[in-house]
C-alpha cells in the first residue's frame, strides 16, 4: 500500500495553517504545521516529509533564509507562499532553490494542483507515466539519468539539482538545437501559469548554467537567442 503524502507547512498565521491542513486532509494528504524555523527544525528531526510549503513572511528567521538553508541540507521540494506585491521575493525564492510559488490570497484548488504538479515533477519516473525505465541523456560527457533524476558530470561526480533545475535540463535534452521560447519552457517544466514565471525561467537558466557550463558568462551549451528564448547547442544522445 502506498504511504500517504506528508507535507510540512511553515506558516505563522494559525488560521491559514489550519485552513491548508484541513483542506489537504480532505484529499488524503497528511500535514504538520510549524509556526517558525525552530518548530520546522523540530518537525524535520522527528519525521520525514514529501514537500515543504514555506511562507516567506515569518518571525525570526525569514522564509528566504529558511529556503536557502533547507535547500543546502535537503532535496525536499519547496513551494513558497508570498504576497501579491512581493515579486522580487518570488524571484529570490526561486533563485534559492524553491520549486514553485503561490500567491496569497490563494485558491485552495490551485494550491492542491501546484502540490500535485511539483510532486509529479520530483518523483521517480517509471514506465507507467510513459517514460522508458532507465532512460538517460548524454551530452559532452554529461549524463542525465531520468529514472534516478541524477545529473553526473564528465568527471563522474553527481551534481545536485533542484526539481525545477532537473526538469529544465530534461526539457533541453529532449529538444537539442531547437529554439525554445520562455513560454514553451514554462509549459514543459511548470505547466501553464501567469505572473513572473517568465522571469523565473531566466533564473533557472542562470542557475543551470552555473552547474553545467565551464564559463557561465560564455555558455557553450545553453545559449540565449535574442528576443526568442534559448537553444541547447550540443549533441544529445539517448542511453
UniProtKB/TrEMBL annotation:
Residue span(s) of domain Response regulatory: 6-119
Name of the protein in question: Regulatory protein VirG
DNA-binding annotation, residue ranges on this chain: 134-234
Matching PANTHER family: DNA-BINDING DUAL TRANSCRIPTIONAL REGULATOR OMPR, REGULATOR OF RPOS
CDD domains: trans_reg_C
Location within or outside the cell: Cytoplasm
Matching InterPro entries: CheY-like_superfamily, OmpR/PhoB-type_DNA-bd, Sig_transdc_resp-reg_C-effctor, Sig_transdc_resp-reg_receiver, WalR-like, WH-like_DNA-bd_sf
BP GO annotations: regulation of DNA-templated transcription
Domain OmpR/PhoB-type: 134-234
